[in-house]
Amino acid sequence: MKIDDNIEKSEDGLEQLIDAALMFEENHYLDAIRQKKLDEYDILQLTEDVRLWHSRMRKEQLKLAKLSEHWIEDYATNCNNRYKEAYDLFVKVRSCISSSRKLFKKFCRRVMNNPTNGNVSRNVLDRSVLSANVVSLDIFGLKSYQENVVTLYEEMSSFFATLVGTLALCHRMLRDEAITKNDPERVWEIYQKCKNELLSSARMFARTFNIDVKQITESELIERRKKAKNVREYIHRNYHCLNKAEYATLIAYEVVQESNNNGLTEQETLLWGNDVEMVMKVRNAIVNIERLAIGKKKISGYLMLQFIKWCKVKKEHEHSLYNYFCDTYKGKIPPVGWTQVFNTRKDLRVSDEELAQAFEKELQTLLSDAA
After folding, report:
1. Residue 6 placed within a domain
2. What is the SS3 assignment for 128?
3. Distance between CA atoms of 49 and 37, rounded to whole angstroms?
């Protein structure tokens, strides 16, 4: 009668496989090889198989460990179309599951094709000697066997140890996610943290300006967001349900909304957040900066550098700030190109703070004289 080697792709299946792997020890191993009557060549071949399976499993374990580091702290994930069930984690470690199933099946007791055996389990974990509740003891122990038998035991012990560690990690990830999903305040904290990280990224900054605002506001995702009666409830419900691109769209929409509410542009919101006072100061400085370059053909790289440091944006946003300046500035004296501004900094031996203070002093003197 055929052995059923299917392992249920659920949390119960994870636990059953962990329990079966934990049963493996010296007496189970010796009883298994005696019952299967393995010869020297069978043992050598199986040793190589176990090593290969173990190597594949280790790679999956390392990938899973890397994923787990930020699993709970990431609001959105691209991981295999989102892990919402144990099934998805089984897919992630499919080599791990497949190889363990083969190893257990290798040492299964036969199920005789007999009508009286109707109630006998055919499941691979129940039939395998490696996970049996009762085994025959070997009074002489492993030390009485040849070296190749000992080597196979050591390889299988390492294999099952890695299997248990990998499956336990899967189980912990599912458990931690379930706990987090049941805590709306924790989800809100994660959402805000990820939002701040996303907006502080120069890559996200550039990406946002390449997004068509109309395309964002009319997307299906944002339509659902608009219809949500409670923003926090919407954020809570979508934890680990959006991929990275969808999440970026959601944040871009919020940036647009915040900009509109504060009278700021999307660029200004991404550069200075909701600091309306700072934005007003920058706008005023852009209007008056030409007066600091009277008599010049261009606004110098040094003056532009002073202005950029005075604006107090992150270094990775400075190029975007320069682009913002060019978009906003309406004066007749053009600024030098970005490359010249960038190269100016290389030749200076003054701090960013000193550059910012110098610009503040020149600007205040200019405005005082004008008054």
Report:
1. no
2. strand
3. 18
Q: Do 71 and 191 fall within a single domain? A: no
Tokens 């200019």 — which residue?
366
> What average pLDDT does range 223-236 have in this prediction?
80
On the question of pLDDT at 250 being above 60, the answer is: yes
- Amino acid letter for position 300: S
**What is the pLDDT at residue 209?**
46
* 144 within a domain of the structure (yes/no): yes
Cα distance between residue 31 and residue 136, in whole Å: 6
Q: What is the pLDDT of residue 339?
A: 92
Do 151 and 293 share a domain, yes or no? no
Q: Are residues 25 and 66 in the same domain?
A: yes
**Which residue range(s) make up the domain with 240?**
184-268
Q: Is residue 36 part of a domain?
A: yes
The reported pLDDT for the residue numbered 206 is 46
Report the range out of 33-42, 57-66, 154-163 with the highest average pLDDT: 154-163
DSSP 81-133: G---SHHHHHHHTHHHHHHHHHHHHHTBPP----GGGTTS--BHHHHBGGG-S
CB environment 310-340: b (16+ within 10 A), e (fewer)? bbebeeebbbbbbebbeeeeeeebebbebee
**Is 1 a member of any domain?**
no
Q: Which residue has the higher pLDDT, 292 or 84?
A: 292
Structure confidence at residue 178 (pLDDT): 86
Domain count across the chain: 3
Mean pLDDT over the full length of the chain: 81
Do 174 and 205 lie in one domain? The reply is: no
